[in-house]
Design brief:
Elements lengths: L7 H6 L25 H15 L10 H20 L6 H12 L8 E5 L14 E4 L1 H6 L9 H16 L7 E11 L4 E10 L5 E7 L4 H5 L10 H16 L8 E4 L11 H4 L8 E8 L12 E5 L15 E5 L6 H10 L4 E5 L22 E2 L6 E4 L3 E5 L14 E2 L2 H18 L3
Parallel strand pairs: 5-6, 6-9, 9-10, 10-14
Antiparallel strand pairs: 1-2, 1-12, 3-4, 4-5, 7-8, 7-13, 11-12
Helix pairs in contact: 2-3
Length: about 425
């Protein structure tokens, strides 16, 4: 089998195009796909592009042909209404697209569609943008659903900041640090805490709001870099986990709660330091042709050990991950990778279920991934480029990964989940 390294994205970006073009629908990277003038043409274009470029047709149970048959007449009816001089409310258009596409399992997927003829009246003002997010509907049905992701992230961030400021009374804190890093597309928070258990044993803990370790660590040797302080915290966590003598190291904690994902290469920072030989628990594949099931071969993701490392399994040192419903993408893939280590253990909640990696500029290299009008003047579809499966054959898209020990946010709160992790390590034998 072909090996996919952790620099997969950079490697693929350097490849020449080998994409085949279908003869029945414009290639998703061509401007002709934006040439539609009415609702029926718009729906037809979106339906065809998802039909040929969606990577999950092998596991998605949506009857896509039935979707076309059921909804095309409804979009044609909108065009007849426009021809009679009436507009279309954005609410109505959103309901149609929700019904047609809101049940797809890709939890990365976000569909933006412009209302071509918005209705404006004294009674209602329709905007001109429809946004469809299939994941939001699914996760809201889970019995442990926490409604406001932004408030939960703020709560977790504030809690970690207070702990880092040594206001956590349950355990002694030997060292702590909390940094916010402004990156191109977001602000990433990094928190490192070295807990000391009764008896003096240590537990290095790391929380990040996103997996951007690879670029952040580029600033480790650059004191004037904006990444420098955050890189130092990540480095301290790794060094504490690797270099602390066995008799003093009680366990390691990686907190993936509310982590919205990032770089696949970050596995080199959270897995590679804790293995002594090549490690693989997942494979990926992508669309390589217009047929719904026209995929590439499955290729394993293989992580090579770091130069500086220790085998936590051989030393029987627990490696605990905290997860919640908003552990997304790399926040989930790292969770699963740790869980499969000999002493890996997950505490918290089943993760979000957005596990398919994305390569935004992949339309010339694969047959899927994000496409459309990036300026968002007509439509834009954000969707997974790759499908992930575990070596046991489980495709986690739309499902996520379940914890070994369930500790729900609604019951225990963010502190209770951390307490459970520290208690597990304290009692580990």
């Amino acid at each position: 089998m072909r090996k996919i390294s952790l620099v997969i994205l950079a490697m693929l970006m350097s490849l020449s195009s080998c994409r085949k073009s279908p003869d029945y629908v414009p290639y998703i990277g061509e401007t002709s796909m934006l040439a539609y003038t009415n609702y029926a043409e718009q729906f037809d274009m979106l339906w065809n592009n998802i039909n040929t470029g969606y990577v999950f047709w092998d596991v998605d149970e949506t009857d896509w042909d039935e979707v076309y048959e059921d909804y095309m007449p409804q979009f044609e009816a909108l065009d007849l209404r426009v021809q009679s001089g009436k507009g279309v409310s954005t609410k109505e258009l959103k309901e149609l697209y929700e019904g047609a596409m809101g049940g797809l399992i890709d939890h990365h997927m976000s569909i933006m569609v412009k209302n071509l003829h918005p209705q404006v009246s004294n009674n209602s003002v329709g905007g001109d943008i429809v946004n469809i997010n299939p994941a939001s509907k699914e996760i809201s049905t889970r019995d442990y659903y926490y409604k406001n992701s932004s408030s939960l992230l703020s709560e977790l961030s504030e809690f970690n900041k207070k702990v880092a400021e040594k206001s956590y009374s349950e355990y002694k804190i030997s060292y702590s640090g909390y940094e916010k890093v402004k990156m191109e597309d977001e602000t990433v928070t990094v928190c490192y805490i070295l807990f000391e258990l009764p008896g003096g044993k240590l537990v290095p803990y790391l929380w990040q709001s996103a997996y951007k370790m690879t670029p952040i660590m580029s600033g480790l040797d650059k004191p004037y870099s904006s990444y420098y302080k955050a890189a130092q915290l990540i480095d301290k966590w790794k060094n504490a986990a690797i270099k602390t003598p066995r008799e003093r190291l009680a366990g390691v904690i990686l907190d993936n709660r509310c982590n919205n994902g990032g770089y696949l290469a970050d596995l080199n920072h959270v897995i590679a330091p804790f293995i002594k030989k090549d490690y693989s628990v997942m494979s990926t594949r992508y669309k390589e042709g217009p047929g719904r099931l026209e995929h590439s071969v499955w290729s394993p993701i293989i992580i090579e050990p770091s130069t500086s490392n220790r085998d936590l399994g051989a030393e029987n040192i627990p490696y605990v991950v905290l997860s919640n419903i908003y552990s997304i993408s790399m926040g989930e893939l790292t969770t699963y990778h740790v869980s499969q280590l000999p002493t890996g253990y997950v505490i918290g909640e089943r993760t979000y279920g957005a596990t398919g990696p994305l390569l935004p500029n992949a339309i010339d290299l694969t047959y899927g991934g994000p496409y459309g009008d990036i300026s968002k003047e007509k439509h834009y579809v954000y969707t997974s480029t790759y499908e992930i499966k575990t070596h046991e054959g489980f495709v986690p898209e739309g499902i996520g990964f379940s914890p070994d020990k369930e500790v729900l946010t609604r019951d225990a709160g963010v502190q209770g989940q951390l307490d459970a992790a520290l208690e597990y390590i304290k009692n580990y034998k």
